[in-house]
Design a protein that fits this description.
CATH architecture of the largest domain: 2-Layer Sandwich
Distance between the termini: 51 Å
Oligomer: single chain
Strand content: 15-25%
Radius of gyration: 27 Å
Largest sheet: 10 strands, mixed
CATH topology of the largest domain: Endonuclease, Chain A
Structural class: alpha/beta
CATH class of the largest domain: Alpha Beta
Number of domains: 4
Number of strands: 27
């Protein structure tokens, strides 16, 4: 009998950070592809710009900390922190080169559509005298009030800063002034001329007319830089508004991990900034174009030509009959599974509206991780409280980069009389569910909505997510027990149908994987299909390896990070890995276990990542309805190709497209199916 290999060996794993950077290359490939509409290519390019900044703020910052404290500690792929940082720098430089080459290519494509960036002095001088003068000068006056000598403590993460070097009194020592360009202040559009759309960046204007900012001194040079601060970690202690706000203030003083200078920056200024900002441990890059390319998304707001965008898609149905009391009666007969954005997120609003307006509803429980501005859900919960219903909301204030917004809306609900509780000290609350209690003839009936994604009306239009509406008494009771945990109970026990991390979810996943392996060894049907954002938990990967070696057929759809290697000989070709990068962000998580011909379907807020399974409260829920399972099968079959926007992991960290160019985009294919196919 052959000895099973040691699947914990580092040779069987891909580095997490390099896998993520490879994902960014796949996103960038969509920006480079001439088959995509021009404005969509610009959107993809902007996504890579924002995402790389966040990657450095969190992941690279973590690695720098590990290198300082445990420099010899390897990751699951066997790489030391120093080696990882070196490879990250190499990949990031290559990614930046591609990004700016893509930017140049897109600028040429924009010109062909009569859209251009204005950088010549004559045109901008004309702007200062024309229709745009008042708007531009209003912004300039704001800048004049904010211009100050360089103070590293005032530099905000990811903001764009314009620096002005003036004639100084000390030879060889630059006298440097700077100001932050805030959102909405950078891009200006000129009055249309002969159908042409023209725009300029504020730094274009100031480079040519620095006297607008500093009228009483001689400016020798103008340049631009952007810095990213360490954003690793989270607030200590109980996550209340005060503790999280205190932590946010400390973050503003964290060291820099990445700085990008404009390539025309004076070398003396660059050296000066390097010293003053203490960049000895930072990653420093030079950009061959405008910094922070996410500004490109502003252009799309001014473009009306439909052919430059993906097709505008409308929903085939809006669940018109699912409203008011009828909604609850329907759920008592069968579950409802909704796939967003193929099916409208409005159905979630209707469910909550029904709960708020129904006099028989006594209690509402709701979780929030990320919430949109001007959220109708927030308004409805406040209304329910004012109508006398008991409303309890769990707000996780530590959703990275959304902390301030979450604090704002948690306070708003509290002021409306809603009972607001927060995540646990050691575990972020990443689970998503909404529970409604109704009193009918002295009896309590409970209804629930469980989701793979956030209660965020904005992202629900561009993230694929799955929501289950149910009146299953076991699921509803389980959800209430999880909510009780946040209300003060120390443990969660006695769950019948839901699995929750960090308590038993990982163990449940491993049990289900090992069950399939046991079936395979007995010669029975055994299969696993999973759709996740990321796969990097070593224990889950080891269990998958063992199952594949035993004969289980495993199909994985992994959008981003994948630390698993499908090509290992011992796996006998039993694992295939796909990645889909399309119009929508593939955010839903689906898990299907063959169970010897009696398959079990689950959806979850959790990825196969250590943080989800060990450091967050996540929920996995079963899907039993036949038509609901058909919807999930349709998604899984479509995203595992062949198809446009789909690639297959062939070896290590190498992907290849599953179809030649010219195919129908995967998200359009699914949209057609959900709006005319499955009911």
């Amino acid at each position: 009998m052959n000895k099973e290999p040691d699947f914990r060996n580092s040779k069987y794993y891909v580095n997490r950070e390099l896998s993520w950077l490879n994902f960014m290359e796949r996103v960038l490939a969509e920006a480079e592809s001439p088959e995509n509409p021009l404005m969509e290519r610009i959107r993809f390019l902007g996504i890579t710009s924002r995402s790389v900044d966040e990657f450095f703020a969190v992941r690279v910052a973590t690695l720098l900390c590990v290198q300082r404290n445990t420099p010899g500690l390897p990751d699951i792929s066997g790489l030391t922190p120093k080696k990882q940082l070196s490879l990250i720098n190499e990949c990031a430089e290559h990614l930046m080169e591609r990004r700016y080459a893509c930017y140049d290519m897109l600028c040429e494509a924009l010109k062909k559509e009569n859209i251009s960036r204005v950088i010549d002095k004559k045109s901008l001088e004309k702007t200062l005298k024309g229709e745009s003068r008042d708007t531009v000068m209003s912004t300039i006056r704001k800048f004049q009030k904010r211009v100050k000598p360089l103070d590293p403590a005032k530099i905000k993460s990811e903001s764009v800063y314009i620096t002005l070097k003036v004639e100084g009194s000390v030879p060889g020592e630059p006298e440097l002034y700077f100001f932050e360009v805030r959102e909405g202040e950078r891009v200006f559009f000129l009055p249309a001329e002969k159908g042409a759309l023209r725009f300029f960046l504020i730094e274009d204007l100031i480079k040519l007319f620095p006297e607008l900012i500093l009228p009483k001194v001689v400016t020798k040079s103008v340049s631009v830089f952007s810095a990213v601060r360490d954003r690793d970690g989270m607030a200590e202690g109980r996550p209340t508004p005060s503790t999280v706000q205190k932590w946010l203030k400390t973050v503003e003083k964290n060291p820099f991990v990445r700085v990008v200078f404009s390539d025309d920056m004076d070398l003396n200024i660059r050296n000066y900034l390097f010293e003053k900002l203490n960049l000895s441990e930072s990653f420093v890059y030079s950009a061959k174009g405008p910094l922070n390319l996410s500004f490109l998304s502003e252009i799309a707001k001014w473009v009306s030509d439909d052919k430059l965008f993906f097709p505008k898609l409308s929903h085939g149905h809006e669940f018109d009959s699912f409203k008011g009391k009828a909604f609850f009666l329907k759920l008592e007969k069968r579950d409802l599974l909704v796939i967003h954005p193929y099916e409208s997120f409005d159905v979630v609003i209707k469910f909550l509206e029904a709960a708020v307006r129904d006099k028989n509803v006594t209690e509402i429980f709701q979780t929030f991780y990320r919430v949109s501005d001007d959220s109708k859900i927030i308004d409805l919960l406040a209304e329910a409280s004012k109508l006398g219903k008991r409303v309890t909301v769990l707000f996780e204030l530590r959703a990275r980069f959304d902390e301030s917004r979450n604090i704002k809306y948690s306070k708003l609900l509290k002021n409306a009389g809603v009972k607001v509780v927060y995540g646990k000290r050691d575990f972020k609350a990443h689970c998503k569910f909404l529970i409604v209690k109704r009193e009918i003839d002295g009896k309590t009936k409970t209804y629930a909505h469980l989701s793979t994604g956030n209660y965020n009306e904005s992202t629900a239009r561009s993230y694929t997510d799955i929501g289950l509406f149910t009146a299953d008494p076991d699921i509803c009771a389980d959800a209430l027990k999880i909510f009780d945990y946040f209300l003060g109970k120390r443990i969660i026990k006695g769950l019948k149908k839901l699995a929750v991390s960090p308590f038993e979810l990982k163990a449940e996943f491993i049990r289900l994987i090992e069950r399939e392996a046991a079936y395979a060894r007995e010669g029975k049907n055994a299969s696993i299909t999973a759709k996740v954002n990321s796969l990097c938990d070593s224990e889950i990967i080891e269990a998958l390896y063992r199952a594949a070696a035993a004969g289980v057929k495993i199909k994985l759809i992994v959008r981003g990070i994948c630390c698993l290697k499908p090509e290992i000989p011992e796996l006998k070709g039993n694992i295939s890995v796909y990645s889909a990068v399309g119009d929508f962000l593939e955010h839903s998580r689906i898990y299907v276990f063959g169970n010897n011909g009696n398959p079990e379907y689950f959806c979850s807020s959790a990825d196969w990542m250590q943080r989800n399974l060990e450091r967050r409260v996540e929920v996995m829920f079963p899907v039993t309805d036949k038509s609901a399972r058909e919807k999930l099968d349709l998604i899984l079959d479509t995203l595992s190709g062949p198809g446009k926007n789909i690639s297959r992991l062939v070896k290590g960290n190498e992907y290849e497209e599953t179809i030649e160019s010219g195919g129908e985009p995967v998200n359009l294919k699914l949209w057609r199916a959900f709006n005319g196919g499955i009911s």
